[in-house]
Fold this protein.
Amino acid sequence: MSVYVWIETYSGRANPSSWEALAAAGALAENLGSDVTALVFGENAREIATEAGHFGATNAYICKDEVVNEYRLEAYTQLMTDLVKQQQPAFVLAVASSRGRELLASSAVDTESGLIADATELRLDKGKIIAIRPAYAGKVSMEMTSNSMTTYITVRGRAFQAPPKDANATVSVAELQTALTMKDISVAAETFTDSAEDVNLTEAAIIISGGRGMANNPQEVPSEEDAADPNVWKAKEGFENTLRPLAAVLGAAVGASRAAVDAGYIPYEHQVGQTGKVVNPDLYIACGISGAIQHQAGMRGSKIIVAINKDAEAPIFKLARYGIVGDLYDVVPELTAALRRKLGS
Amino acid sequence: MHVVSFTRSTPDTAAKVWVDEEGKVTWGDVATVVNPWDEYSLEETIVQAKGSAGEATVIAIGPDIHDDALKHSIAMGITKALRIDEPNADIRDSLVWSALAAGAIKKLGDVELVIFGKESVDVATDQHSYQLARRLGWTMLSYVSNIVALDADARTIRVEQMLEQGKRVLSARLPAVISVMKGINEPRYPNFLGIRKAAKAQIPVWSAADLGIALPVAATAILAYHNPPVRDVATEIITGKDSAEKAAILAERLFEEKVL
């Protein structure tokens, strides 16, 4: 009755958020008097299994067949399902990334097992799993249980702390073969364009976000620019030259409100909120964001919230630990300079 | 080509939602809206059905609160709506939900494409789309930000998928289940004619027996809902003689908080 963790990989490297899932699994395994088994499929599976061992896995199943060389939902699901049917682990965990969510949901239905998505807390009560997860855009939380032989659980990124690395820990590795071949795969991946962002919003420890106030940039639109909408030019320039330097100093990701995205100031992939991403960084700096309830739905889980806004009445100040009432275009460059001095970068 | 979308009614996104004394989730007397992510899937369903000279159907699973979302869908331009209501089914469990959904798709018979919004904001999960695809044995294409091509005759689809790591173009054979992101289209507002049509629409309700399926056992159970702990709202508004001083104080505070 081991506890399994799918280690998400990308281009032959582990997604470090998977170590958080290993931590969550470790606590369950300890309670059950069991151990943690990492599932690593694809490129560099053996090396990544060794790494998973450094973060608490004692066993690993790896598969290096061509059909799982890169992530393919059908093949990964089949491999996971076959293993679960055969071994009947108590739990299968993964981080609740896009792929973690679809993979565990697919395999759960194959095995008619319970699925708990996006858990933020887990505990065992006399062997019964109790999970806390958000509902209604985080306005309430749901307490769930599952009674199937195996329960699949995705854990919200940054809800569990990754275990300390022990580079001397070893892992016992078994290699799997899948019955699938490339002919069984119905989806063909044609092209892939890497995100231009260094830091992924949902995994970021620090996020700098901009809102409608980004349009108040005092910069003049250069005469050679097509100034069809000067606000769009100003806001884009502000994201690039005011928010990004602060993000760079802190190794932060750049977020945005729906208002900023809908106005065309920044692409949708940056949107935080009800119809964007849900984030829970240690530090969230909201610049020129009023803090509509739909935005709060995406960021209220942040540990420390800082609001920088000209409008002292903006609702965002009610959530904020620290606030500066002022023009972000005055405050942010000063904050960047102050942090640069302190961090010596 | 017959295109189907699943939808549900969810509390207005601006509504306050809380757990009452009886432990039930409530949002007072605020109206429900169509699940915000479904505006994109409904729009895409209308566009793709029209583009392939086919039918557009919307389905909700659950009690009659979801008729509001179905009527909104008709008002937008979906031609047919139906609701699955099975009092014996615990549809809060996605194994049960997806079994009913798969039963409905099979009963319709000629469906080639099912389109979901990225997730439902009330239950806050996207697992239903994946589980339906798996139950049907269809291809799943998730987080679709653009349908590049859809060929009803060749029965192929090409989409752009938006992942944390970037964008990927995928091609697959139909039938398929897809889930779509914001940005794939500009959802239309219902017009007067559409709203009149929706008001008059009779929505058929099917049970598990109508679908001819045996219900699976629910594997999960909701034990309770809780109000989240009240956030520490001791806001410190930083004051100083100018922005430089305020920024320096803020930097100091952030160091003290050990979040850098």
User: Anything to note?
Assistant: Residues 3-184 of chain A form a domain with the Rossmann fold fold (CATH 3.40.50.620). Chain A touches chain B through 93 residues (CB under 8 Å). The first helix of chain A runs from residue 17 to 32.
